[in-house]
Amino acid sequence: MRVLRRLSQVLVFLVFVFLFLNTEYKDNDVLPYAVNVFLRMDPLVAGAATLAGRAVINLLWPALAVAGITLFFGRFFCGWVCPMGAILDFADASIFRKLKRRVKLPANLPRLKYFILFFLAASSLFTLQMVFLFDPISILIRSLTISIFPGINMAINSLFDALYFTNIHAVTRVSEPVFSFLKNHFLAFEQPQFRLAALVGSIFLLIISAEYFQRRFWCRNLCPLGALLGLLGRFGLTRRRVGDSCISCGKCERDCRMGAIGGDFKSTNASECVECLDCRSICPEKAVHFVGRGRPELLPVNAGRRGVITSLAVGAVAAPIFLSEGYRKVSDPSLIRPPGALSEEKFLDRCTRCGECMRVCTANGLQPALFEAGLSGLWSPILVPRMGYCEFNCTLCGQVCPTGAIKRLSPREKRKTKLGLAEFDRSRCIPWKGESNCIVCEEHCPTPVKAIRLREEQVTTLSGEVIRIKRPYVDENLCVGCGICENKCPLTGHPGIKCTSRGESRAQGAELLTTDEG
Amino acid sequence: MNRRGFLKTTAIAGAGAVIAPSFIEEALAFEGPLVSMAKGTPPARITRAAVDALGGMSAFVRKGDVVVVKPNIGWDRNPAQAADTNPEVVTEVIRMCLDAGARKVKVFDRTCNDARRCYENSGIGPAVEGIKDPRVELSFVDERKYKMVDIPAGKLIRRWPIYEEALNADKFINVPVAKHHSAALLTMGMKNVMGVIGSNRAVLHREINDALPDLNRVIKTSLAIIDATRILVANGPQGGSLKDVRQTKTVIASADVVAADTVAATLFGKTPSEVRYLKLAQDAGLGVADINRIRLKKVSV
After folding, report:
1. B9: confidence class by pLDDT, cuts 50, 70, 90
2. Does the domain at residues A418-518 carry the CATH identifier 3.40.50.880?
3. Across the interface, do B202 and A440 touch by the CB < 8 Å criterion?
4. What is the ipTM of this complex?
5. Residues B93 and B23 in one domain
6. A:B CB pairs within 8 Å
7. Cβ <8 Å between A444 and B241
8. N- to C-terminal Cα distance for chain B?
9. Global pTM?
């Protein structure tokens, strides 16, 4: 039976990787797979987004299904499905295989995960959604997107580049076909690069490194999704039960990855047990069962009333503190949200910082925010035009958002959606400074009637020469704030044209600035 | 090569260098470049007719040649929007190259929008893949393959990274779409070579009229085939609105890219005195921009 569980972990992980790799434009305007399904079946994400957003989010029905199954079958998700759990188990079976863990951790450490869960529940209830900090699926996809995958991609590219530049035919004859195979199936089309890559990646590596102290350190002590599923599945049908043939050898207790087995070896903490079935497999007397005969002996939830009440209170207090941040009063002009993003408050209520939109963004323009949206907006997606612009005909970010924080737009709607507006910096722009013609922004402007248009004007140069120059102007009725002008501006350093969120469609009163061209 | 051979070659080359300019000038005066202009439908047929009027593709492509066919795939637009070369023109050019015995036909462009979207939505990607011939190689531009090239006679550009595959090809067939462009006024064959250069090419737009002759000194077009099946007359080079597209149902071809561009400009009612880089290219000896000296062969299909 343990084999089945391992098989399930491997298969689910492969599906996870497949979907991750396919969260990408592949000659198709509509993604053929529900690449975001792992996030959509996450009851923690669903609960927080629903509570904070005060809305029933149809996209999240798979989470309801998982919660329902958990009621009957316990915390199986963590042992059989969760890709983060699979990674940690794999780390144990490889990196930490020979490790003798000597560090004694406090017995109450597992309570932390309940405190985190109740903190998140209370803060979400008061419309502060912080689940992004602790949800394992969001952490995993975000880390892969922002740091792990770009890192691997860069390493492999560097290797094959080095081989390529050896200029030895015998080498490149082999390496180039391999490289192009990898490029076609696994590597990124263009090297993705993200701000904060090192920080986000470090957190992920810390979670793995914590295995040094305990198997499944993260799942046992910190994971609020595990806590939620543990509470839901506590009275499930498939709980561990021990038969009379038990000789109290204690093998199961020593081997349990979750520390779910009591000192008498017979009792089980059902909200900790992930039903990995190891104890059943290793029992020399075959005394352990998960179905059939025997009554499960249950240990109480190790949470602590005082701690739970405190964490609820902290969550409730944190909400108004975060929500009264100055960022929420005057928004940062560089806070350019993806096309179809809900109004800022609703957006942050739902966005779990999973990074799906950043992963799928064709031009690598969507980047994790640092403090543009305040501390509670950490890692939420913003368009950084200098890094990448928003493709005029692309609607992928709205297709992958698991919580509807970014609405799914039709191509027609998308082309009319204003992310903001472009503004010239006349002290930088080449024709505005009176140096010469340029027109690069105008050439790239994607609206059918160009939002950047040129007017020939007479200019006296510094040296007194009178010349005629085509100077660019922004038509704010037509500009959609896609940022391609800022991206392609040939100036190094500060661009001569800059996009800000001013005039964005999702802002109140933005109806005054709409376009009819499409 | 031995010493004697070297001296001999040098002597001949030296003599040639003295005599050639006057010789070429004379030849051009009497015998201007041949430009064919085929009108009609469908695009593939007029493409072939335009090349046939120049003696057929075998006059340009030899058996065993490695040929680069360089369309304009710059924008994420559909074929009707006339921002990219008509896919039917591109595939017909490739087929003619294959028929002429090309060993390899390479197709690529450095795009402005996301390359995958441009290749797909311009229709050129699927159409070229549809040829299903192992000699045809459609690829995205590979950043590693730019090579720094000196342009000693360059007026504006003295050095620039240029795509190796374009430089190393036996024949470079330039297949642009003719359209409006606010800096160059019109973008056709001479401007299309900007798709095989590296680095921050946007800075070149400041002095585009000097930049284009310089680039065309080192990126030599063996045959220009200009797609004017439909042309973009405003809001170029990207367009997007069918209101700016005119159905001109024309393909223009010539071994002289300057001459081909000069003829294509007439479709927009423009002359080389307006499209200044054409005049400057002629001054630089790159081709003929004088419509009276061009031998125009019109074909109707």
Report:
1. low
2. no
3. yes
4. 0.92
5. no
6. 80
7. no
8. 52
9. 0.92
